[in-house]
Protein 1
Amino acid sequence: MKKKFNLSFERGDLLPFLLILPTLLLITFVMIIPLFFGTFISFFDFSLGGFDLTRDFIGFDNFVRFFNDSTALKSMVVTVLFSIGAISGDLFFGTIAAVLIFRLSHRMSSILRPIITMPLLVSPIIVGLIWRYIYDPQGILYWFLGLFGLGIKDFPGVTSQSTALISIIIAHWWQVTPFVIIILTAGLVSIPHEYYEAAYVDGAGSFRAFQKITLPFLSPMYMVILLISGVDTIKIFDIIYALTGGGPNNSTMSVNIYAFNQGFVNTNMSYASTISLFAMLLAFLLFGLPFIHNNRVQHEEYK
Amino acid sequence: MKFKGKWYFSVIEKLILVIFLVWTVVPIYIIISNGFRRTLDIKTMPPELFFKPIFSHFEKVLINDNFMKYFFNSAVVAISTSVIVILLGTFTAYGILIYRSKFGEYFSVFMILGKLVPTITILIPLYIMMNKMGLTGTYFAPIIAHSAIQLPFITWLMLSFMRGLPKELLEASKVMGCSRMKSLFLIIFPLLKPAVGSAIILTMQYSWNELMFALQLTNIKTYTLTVAIAKYTGALSVDWGKTSAAAAITMVPIIIIGFFMQKYLVTGLTAGSVKG
């Protein structure tokens, strides 16, 4: 006689709920209530002092203000530019490094991996500091460039509006490329060796094999990287906080930095909350919708 | 993947890798070594490879600037967060597993939707709430904020590992008269070692390195290391001796832990991409 798998839920069984309850409470308290509360205070002139439901109600004023605030709009543009620059570099350098490391002997790559993943463990605020030191006008970058006869006028780093954003993107590449390498390595391992042999027998070159075999195999990994590190780029805060604080002339003012400054420097909590809602909308439009679409396509494929 | 082509391709490949290694290691090395250099030498270019290390920056940071205390605070927050996340994450995953509802299937969607919410969107209202309740400045505030952010992913990680365990195992434990909680602790939990390892390193590094929540939810008594370092950067000119020493104190422990838990770190990071 086959016994039914008896650990499962039965009517009136409370254990599963009791197990899930603490997490549910925690997430409700830290994420769900703040999300509603944050939306709520966006419609009020809210300060940490007194608060009156009718007196402080301002309707859509904060939202109107957002669209008339050139710094706020610029911060959205800066965030999107940062996101594009950061992700494309992460993927480009990450792919090259992952393929090259994969070609090494197993021993060599297992020695290299812990070294290469080190930046992932460094706090982003320290990443910002490290690069602040590197970009210092008397610092190591300009000494290095000086060896080639280049100076601060050729690459003004974080001191100029024109290059500040790319300087921050470079610092981000330094930290996140290892993540891409780890994920892509997992993808490369899964590609059957015979595919390459067949391709070479047919006379394909290394590049063509990469284009026709490696890339298609890696495409699900790219989706994941795009989603995970893409969302993180919208949230960029620490590196900018340490490197430029949003300057010069707001050229590195990401939407998170701007909302943070409005809230905790200008103590304008309700406007800061409105800005942060737009940050969430941006993350949703750029990465949430493509994910949901992709998920649906996959589910339909299974049917 | 074999490579064909001329011998010099192989040389170029090795060269690119060497440049990549230098690019990765040198910035970390400079900051750590600057902690041991005299302030004057930090500004001297090129940096000397061999120098007589001094410890005065570390002394100043640890004793005068109270980093000993901040180190302790960071450890309290990171360790408490990890314990909470692993316990609750395992419970929740087990609850979903034995409930066997459709909800489990959509858990990854729920997890991703949670990830789309920027920290700042949560932080502003959470700060107001915590402030009203008098909870800012306690260890409690950053610990539960970090836990709630990490829980969806860790729960999903635990769930996907539990699903990989053979069902016969659970049935056997039932036959032997184990209660469901007993079989979670005695049979399932020990088998989740890779998932628990990944959860520990991922949560530890998140909580130890996190800045934004900690910046607003702690006060001078409960500052974590990242907050204390952030206070150094506000100034127009940075005291690089002290800052480098502080950075070294913060990053070396987690790099060492990460080094020994390398396998779990990779498992945790790739689990999200391969199974998701």
Note: Residues 63-122+165-294 of chain A form a domain with the MetI-like fold fold (CATH 1.10.3720.10).
Protein 2
Amino acid sequence: MHSDQKHIRSLLKNDTLGIKLIYSQYAKSVIRMIESNNGSEDDGFDILQESLIDIYNIALHKDFQLTTSFQSFLLLVAKRKWLNQLKKNKLLEVTKLTDQLLNDEDHSESQYNEHLLQNDKENTLMELLATLGESCKDIITRCMKEKRQEKIAESLGISYAYLRKKKSQCMSKLAQKCKNHPVFKRYQS
Amino acid sequence: MKSIEELIEDYIDQVLTEEDQLIFDDLLERDPNFKRELELRLELHKLLARRLDPNNDELRFSIQEAENSYKKEGKKDTIILPLIKWFIPVIAAASLIFVGRFFYYTQFPSIELPEMTSETVRGNQNLTNDHYEKAVVYFNNKEYKNSSIHLKKLVDSIPTNVVYNYYYGLSLLGEQNYGEALGFLLVIGDGTSVFANEANYYAAAAYFKLEDMVNAQARINKIQETSKVYKKGQELLRKIE
């Protein structure tokens, strides 16, 4: 087990002191990488936050093991996030990027490939969920967080039967959006 | 009669009636599209349950708190520095009281940085060469704040150059900026360059100064026996133990 696994544990346990230590040791390097690649300091902080959440979600998988330093892994996750953001904002083609961001043969990337791809898939799902109407987003989110759906129906002022019907419609809409996305291509008919 | 979507949701939430269960089983057996739809919906449920877990929200809160505190610390440093000038004599007197406590970690063992050699490095151009040569002079004069300025420019221009990253890490160490120095030294220490052993030794020294003995030990253990810094690493290890 890598000695930097302690930072992973800090995230998994939501240890506030441990998370502060992560910031004091690694925030500058992430922000510097983003700033060197057409981003602002604020972009750097946003990417750092999202990267730590990603690392937490990746670390929830039981088979995940940190095999490099935490810094290498964090920079790898942050790099992918920033490249994705540039792609989404259609800035990738017009941005001069440093070698650090463009290096495709990142050794550590191949070690974590499976986990990173799974994480991309989960992030895509969350983005697709965000494109649903407010009512669908609310119902799906509530139903995932609270198992007693009778309570949810009551708090929304609707019948349980209607909630069930609405939930299945919303999940169906989300599933359809997923099927149209290349990340979920194996479900395309 | 329930729609296919409702049947699947009822199955996933385990609220299928006996009658619907028969319809569900029948569809699953004879309709491959139904089976594929079910697989997708099961996967979506699994992923959503994980991502929408309340622990995720709590972590976001802690991360935001850490970011605020990190930004505040930075600002506090900038505001407090001018004030410190007025209190230098007071601070000096007070620190004498604590000198015994801090002597161990800050003075012993001292980090002796190697000499930075003047040489032509890969990818050189006039501008980078100029920064490199200036960095060499400042670094060897132990004027680390100035050497860091030039080395940062070099690292920014060619982030993958190991020589620039290594000396920038050391220069930051010279500035006693241990956290940031680690950012550079750890990556090199985990790599396979000729600087890997040295980077691990200096990373261990940085951890030592940060009083993180577990990581300091781990870095020393990475130093190969054949390395020039192996002996120094072992000396540091004895101090830690």
Note: Chain B touches chain A through 56 residues (CB under 8 Å).
Protein 3
Amino acid sequence: MLIRVKAATLNDLFSEATVALTTVMYGDCRDAGIRRRITLEAADSDELLQEFLSEVLYISEAENIVFCGAQVRTDGRHLSATLTGEDFDPGRHNTGTEVKGISYSGLSIREEGENYAVELLFDV
Amino acid sequence: MIEGVIRIGEFEWEVPMGWTPGMRVPGRFFLSDVLSNTLERGAVQQLANVATLPGIVKFSLAMPDIHWGYGFPIGGVAAFRLDDGVISPGGVGFDINCGVRLMTTPLTSATLDRRRDLIEQLYHAIPTGVGARSSTKVNEKELLEMMTTGARWAVDRGLGRPEDLVHCEEQGCMKDADPAGVSVKARQRGLPQGGTLGAGNHFLEIQEVKEVYDRKAADAFGVTQGQICVMIHCGSRGLGHQTCTDHLKILEQASRRYGIQLPDRQLACAPVDSPEGRAYYGGMAASANYAWANRQMIMHTTRSVLSRHYGLAYDEMVLVYDVAHNVAKFEEHIVDGKRIRVCVHRKGATRAFGPGSPDLPAEYASIGQPVIIPGSMGTPSYLLCGTETAMTRSFGSTCHGAGRVLSRAQAKKTISGRQVRDTLAGSGIIVRAPHDGAIAEEAPNVYKPSGEVVRVAEAVGISRLVARLEPLGVIKG
């Protein structure tokens, strides 16, 4: 599944990508006060985004949490993020598609005018 | 056809050296004119990218269900020398040992009564869809055994018959599995998911054998016309997905360290005989074993439901075979007249060993390995067998399915799941899924025609048709 994400800042790009991932997997979500923090380092912003989304995927599945959003601070090599969400509810969150992994194929963050953009390939 | 690709036979095409910089061997794929209309340039680019990897032998290959994936194309097959070749998670995929098994029953369409009730019972007995958790509790020690002994773990636990193991590729266990290559995170994901179907294109289907093409092979496989069978398609769940993710990161860094130029980061790899390569192989094999245990557990649950519903004995429900679609393995093949040991990657491709090959049970030895090709919800699935030709043309490999022509997003936008469900019900096919969106995403017309894919596979000789099975009831994840 190919997803296109566009945002005004790198922080927002990572944040929007998180929402895209969790919406594909679980549909709608409402913030119930659950918080998780992620800190990461990577060689470049592409690798950082792949690793960040992989971590979101892992926490979500391992802890049965559906994330609604992410506040992200990144310089393209370092990242700290706070994820917000709610417990997985089989009655409400079963309308999505399971994402098996975040592929590197075609993942290349670029500047488009005043925005950042990226295509993400989710293995579903 | 894509520019620069050369037709070299009625169903065979070559991507010549130089089509993309750095190719070490040509690319080859098998396709009919009908199927070539849906071929994406991206799939050919991926085939060519694989041809740039060190130590690749003879050709970068793709089967007749070739389509655009990530890293390797779906339908991709490539063999690498052990001394200077590489191993890559991009040649296996996130869903390690995603595979399919086929089980026969003594039922016929005439005796398959209360079908809707059966589908409901199966749907509730087998955890299905996003976020589904297993009702079978597995502890850390048992998970370790699943990873080291595969399907045998389930059989030893009473979830199957010893005879089942003989009818699995690798007897349901890769012996080189090394659970040390499976991280704590991957284990955490695997613990609650044993015996779950998953979502996406995974399914359990009740099918009828509509036509037998090869009586001798069908007899050997225990398949008869009119018989009701069960097909199960799923993989290694979160444990395998996480193992791929973890090793992708390690191998991405290793590729740079070993000076391997990658045209696509998803092709991250390391020499087969390197600490990183060995660690991935061990973890991948452990994940493959988890997948075999998983399918064994689901088959056991299916047997329980069928037994309760129709009074069948477990030994009346026989596993024909279980095949892996996403895996890398060490195998011996004859290349330019010499027998060599290579690391064969199959990404959305099926092993199709011919008669007399090692690893086949005695009763199939003269026929060749059963090859199971699932169709889509409303289209036939096929049982085929491996051939000598596959051994010489495709490293003992063939296609694995139909291959998509419409993306999931396009399908959801343009197709009504409810309408598909009603249309299929009108054709006598009952579909049960967590939501209508899952049905729309997997509607019959989002896939290439499975009949054309297997026709090409047979025409080029890489497998031979044995029987056609048509769906009567489907559980979608």
Note: Residues 45-63 of chain A form the longest helix (19 residues).
Protein 4
Amino acid sequence: MIELLAALGQAWPRLLLYPGGLFALGASWMLCRWLAWVSRQRPACAGPVTLASLPGLLPPMIVLALMPLAPARGFPYGLDLVVALGLLEWPYLRRGIAGSEKVDRMLLLRMYGPLLLAGGGMAEANASLGLSNLLTVPEAPVARGLLLASALLWLASLPQILMNPCAAEGGCSAGDGPKEWPLASLAARLRALGLVLIGMLALLGFASVHSEPWLTATQAGWLLPPLVGVVTALLLGVQLRMAPWLQRFYVGLLVVLVVVLLVSKSVAWLV
Amino acid sequence: MMQPVARFRFSSILSIAAPTGLLLVGLMLAWLAHDRPLAPQVAHGWLRADLLSALTLLLLAGYGLAAVVVSQADHWRTAVVAWCYGMAALTGHLALIAALVIVGVALQPAALAQRRLAFASALATAGGLVLIAVTSGKWLYAALGAGAGLVGGSLVLLLVGTVLASKAQSHLLFVMACYALLRTFSLGPWALQWLFVALVAGTALALWASWHATVASRALLPGWVELVMAGFVLVGAGLGAGAGVVLASYALLIGPLVLLARRPSFPLPNWPLLVLVWMAVAAAVAGRLTVLAILLGLSGFLLALALARWSAPPLRSAPVGRAGEGLALVGVAGAPLFVGTLVGPLVAQLQAGLSPYGELVASPWTGLLVAYNAEKEYVASLPVFVLVALGMVLAAAGWLILRVIGIHRSADKPKVPDL
């Protein structure tokens, strides 16, 4: 019990400053502006946050606060992919489809199927679901390729999930902006930032492996997260500007690649 | 005129007292059999109880009490059937267990629909148990060499019994079928192909049921959710490892909450079901079965859609709804305690039949659930208490900030002079 209290005492900087708190608010605002600029839409202002919208804000904020990002100090009670995805998506799904008469299962599966496959690929590459394990790049070339392809597939499936206003978010609660802009509410922005950061973690691992000869661990901790963050945002921007057929082709190609690598990795482990 | 009133009182007292008694016996047994199974010498193996028996008694009590709340008629029969199955969980003689399973299904409430399915399930379960005894030549399951009876026929019969019991929606029988299925692990390990059959059957059942649950009406939803959970129980058995047993036990533990949700005013236990999905995916990844983990994740996603659709019941503020949410919260916060104190030692007692491919452990005082693989490497973690504590801290901070901003905003407004 004392161990738990001590760990919670160390979580204050994470909750208030980085990677949660002020950083999360600022970065999610910047991500929203960037995505709006790229997709040539007008970003609607977030309405005032009310007490009623707090339950939707808390789960994504907790995920962001516990994200294993340097230079924040490590936290002994880390999250894994399933818990993070659950905390990010459950309030969103609940807000979107609670009480709706009909659910378009096929549309939702088309949206979330590649994301779930990418999550499975990342789990298989490191034989672990832990978010902190995404930062370690495996030795074997097949596993390495699987991790990279899965991370790219994760990011490739995000435009569908983030920019699709009609899929799940049917009824907007009080405090949300106009319906056309899907990232109007603060909860939706924090969710978007969380999903992007999870995809970024694996890229961060690759960047730290390749920069090892030139940078010390402390320098890498300060330099790499903003650099890789910018690269990830640029990648998202490119995907959003792609023609729809090219985007579908890109996602399909990555799905095939991940499935092939997943099967070969599993077979290699069994044999 | 007096007689019906007296009968009603007697049966209602019996229907509450009998499951409560079972609950107390189960708790006592969990304490007594914590370190090693209870098998008194004088009983010559006919009486044998370990933590799996204790867990079964607790589950029978939970389902019995939930059935009393949900259903209208034949409460005393439910109580008698629960005690009958409870006795079956306490004996070490396979023929006696099989006989009690059939007696229990014959005594089940007459109002139960799908009686034939229930009978077929009981016959399959009893047949599986008897086949184990006949093949191995040992009628006491704790006897040396009883594991020789774990042949394909007996395992298939037990699996079929479990699936039929879940399809018949006969909850007490389902608990008993799961008891028989998990009991086989104290006899010895399953052959690899039968583990695979259980995995395929469980995953198919979970996917099929969650696909239908997504568009089901509120009245039918608990039935589909129970089928998804039955699929997870089969997957837990098919994993044949400690993590699988934890998954199956937790699925059975939150079953009474789903049964209670058959009352429209009682909400479905959303958070415990999401914890269950986490356990399923974590156990599959710990067993290095990533394809299974993806399929279970898909099933969990469809289940989450179904739950999200009905997550705001109209009678949210009613006391029953609040009680339901309180019970769901207890189900989540109690998960590390349940896994750490009851299922952990239970897995140790079933060790004879379990493989090391996946272990799910909990530290009850820090609320951390962790899955490890065969190499004892960390696979997944769910820090329940940390999430709850951080949520409370953030909610308090958010509330405070909103209050301060609200006060400033109201101070900006021009004051209306008092008249």
Note: The longest strand of chain B covers residues 378-383.
